[in-house]
Structures are given as C-alpha cells and as structure tokens.
Amino acid sequence: MGDFNQSVILDAIRRSRTGLSRVELASATGLSAQTISNICRRLLDRDFIVAAGKEISGPGKPRTILKINPDGRYALGVHLDPTVMTFVMLDLTGAVVARSRHATPTSTEPEVIIASLVSAITDLVSESGVRRDRIGGVGIAAPGPIDRVRGTVVDPPHLVGWHQVALRDALAEGTGFPAILDKDVTAAAVAEMWAGGPSGLGSFVFFYLGTGIGAGLVVKDEVVRGSSDNAGEIGHIVTDPDGPPCFCGLRGCVIVTCMPRSLVIEADQRGVFGGVPIGLDTVSIDERFTELCAAAAAGDEAATDILDRSAVRLSKAVSVVANLLDLDRVVFGGPFWSRLSGHYKRSIPALLEELRVARSIHRISVVGTGVGEDVAAIGAACLVLDRALTPNPKSLLLA
Which of 97, 177, 287, 369 is packed most tightly, with the most Cβ within 10 A? Predict the structure, then answer.
C-alpha cells in the first residue's frame, strides 16, 4: 500500500506543470496529511522530487511547491527494428537527454544483434555521464509477436531465426540494468501518451509505419495490450480484394498492399527505378522506399499513383480499427512516416471520413506523432518511468 500511495503522489506531481504543494496533494489524492508528509519526505531524501520555491495562498505560512526532479532517475529505451536500432535516455520528466542510432546488423543471428544492442547501450551510458545507480532500467521495444511474461521475442517475420529469443533477460544480463520488454507498436502508443501532448489524450490508435506496419491501441487513456500482450496485429486486414495474394490465403491484405516492401516491389514492376535491379533485404528496401517517395514528390506519375493507392488501402485498414473502437484520433509515426507524411496527410483524412460509421456524431482527427521519429525507443524508456511513477491498482492484489 505504501508503494502504491507513493506512486499516486509521484503521478500527481508529474502531471502538474507548475508543481503541487502538500495541501494540494491532499486534495488531489485523497490521502491524509500525515501520509503525504511522510511520503514526500522520503521522496525528497531519495531525490525523486525537489522543493521548487514557496507559494503564498491566503493566510498562514507559505506553501512549499514540490516538483519532479529531472535528475532524480533516468531510464533507457531501445527500439529494435529490422532496419535500424534506436537508443535513448530519458530523465525523470520524460525529456530525452541522450540518443544514438545504429544500422541493425545484416546478420539476423540473435547473438550478433544482442551483442550490438548491449554495446550501444553501454556506449550511450558512458557518453551521457550519468551515474549507473541513477538509471532505473532499460525498456525494449521489439517487433511482435512477443511473450511479455517470459520476456521473449517469438518468430517476428523480419528477424529470421528469432524463435523464443529471451531478449529481456539477455539485455538485463549484458547491461546490468533491470529490463522490460514490450511490442514496438505498444511502446509507441505509450510514448504518445507520455510525451505527445494533445495527440496522446483520450482514445486513439497509433499506426506504426516501419519495416512492418502495426497498431498501438489506447482507449480512454488506457493501453490495450490484449490477453497475451500482442494486440495491434493488423497485417491481415483486407484492403483490396483484387490485390496481390497473401500467404494467409486471402488477397489484398495490409501486409502485401501497404508495407514498404510491397510498395517497392510494385514500383520496380512499374519502372520507377529505371530497371535497376532491387534487393529485398531491409537495408535495400529502406533505400528504395526513399527513392520512391522522392520520385512521387518530384511528380513521377507512376510513383504518385503507387502512393495514392497505398493511401486508399491504408485508409480502409485504419477505418476498421477506428470504427471498431470508436476513437477520437489516428496518430501516424515510425521510421517511414516522415517520408510519407506529406502525401498521406493530404489524402487519408478525407478517405477515412467517408468510411467512418460515426462521422455524423463526431469527427476524428488524423495527425503525425508529437514525439518524433524515435517514438518507439522513447516509449520503451517510458515503460520504465511508467512502472516507477504511475499507480497500478493490480499491485494491491494479494494473489
């Protein structure tokens, strides 16, 4: 109960931009003055919060304003994408204080990639100058499916050979920090809630556009993870019944109509790359996708048509999720979003509005992430902060 109450107080202080006095904390949390005094004293001693001046409010002594201490603790975040690995360090307010990015090793052997992750984390900590005892842990955002209980990555489609890889424990052992594992799309949604501003409020879907495409779900400010923590798999929503065949037996699924690899293959077939042979590894796809988007921006008719059709198809997938959950907002982000944002922002809002069931009742906004391209890595670090700063009623259960 003491730990839960401490989280309640920390969360109340964190959510206040100007800080709170002990009297205001009592009003906001419903806890007794003695409980608040004891917990605040402990938090001050442990550097989680700081006294940030006095405030005069009516008769009596001035009240001491308490704020989160940015330097009180830090959190590390790692995003493993088949193309690029991103690393961030956040302070206790959620601000990024250090970051780095490295190409994912071309070898998909788990041992090779894990060694590269550990090395990059070690370098980031060293370069940041932050004391190790101030780092609360490392959050890991990985492509799904995952087994969050066991901390394993389970056969992700773009990491060949990753069958039940114990990524969480491997990074904990390699770095010496406690570790948390979550799906990359879920981590992205968490980041939007923590640091996205207005785009992270209420009910929304975060459409993650990377080497793969997935959806992070938030309903009434609560992350929806599903019974096995693998909610958000949208690859087999049919967006074009006459589209290419999918390995699942259907035609026109998201995975074969909207993903960067599919668009690059279509662009190659239509001569956008001038007949130059293309590779289908993740690095080559990334490079060719950049060429495709640049060609569309320059007015190439075939490239523009490919992106136009992908927007129509993706709008159908977005509408399925938006109608199912009755959302306020659709947020786009991920490593490929910046290259698509200009094109998609012009077309998807109107396309989506036509497909929405509740359009006569309320509008739905379509926005880009308020966090930036490192959203999944930032979300991974936010998982560490969330565990420390957000009250979890489940912690009160005795069994």
Answer: 369
The DSSP secondary structure of 294-308, one letter per residue, reads HHHHTT-HHHHHHHH
Tokens (6 digits) for 49: 């919060």
pLDDT in tens, the chain (399 residues): 557 888 889 888 887 878 899 999 999 899 999 999 999 999 999 999 999 888 766 666 788 899 999 999 999 999 999 889 999 999 998 899 999 999 999 898 999 999 999 999 999 999 999 999 999 999 999 999 999 999 999 999 889 899 999 999 999 999 999 999 999 999 999 999 988 888 998 999 999 998 889 999 999 988 999 999 999 999 999 999 999 999 999 999 999 999 999 999 999 999 999 988 888 888 899 999 999 999 999 999 999 999 999 999 999 999 999 999 999 999 999 989 999 998 899 999 999 999 988 888 988 999 999 998 899 999 999 999 987 777 665 655 555
Question: φ, ψ for residue 355 (rounded to 5)?
Answer: -95, -5
Closest CA to 109 of 162, 146, 170: 162
Element (H or E) spanning 224, and its range?
strand 222-224
DSSP string for 159-190: STT-SSB-HHHHHHHHHSS-EEEEEHHHHHHH
Q: Which of 391, 392, 378 is CA-nearest to residue 91?
A: 378
First CA to last CA distance, the chain:
14
3-state secondary structure of 341: helix
Q: Show the 3-state SS of 259-285.
A: CHHHHHHHHHHCCCCCCCCCCCCHHHH
* Burial classification of residue 397, based on how many CB atoms lie within 10 Å of its CB (0-12 exposed, 13-18 middle, 19 or more buried): exposed
Helices 337-355 and 282-297, axial angle in degrees (round to 10): 70
Distances (CA, A) of 66 to 2, 13, 33, 40: 19, 7, 15, 9
Scan for tokens 């981590």, then name that residue: 187
Burial label, 5 (beta-carbon count in 10 A; 0-12, 13-18, 19+): middle
If we measure between CA atoms, which residue out of 14, 68, 4 comes closest to residue 35?
4
Output the pTM of the full model.
0.88
d(CA 264, CA 307): 10
50 close to 10: Cβ distance less than 8 angstroms:
no
Q: How many CB atoms lie within 10 A of CB 197?
A: 9
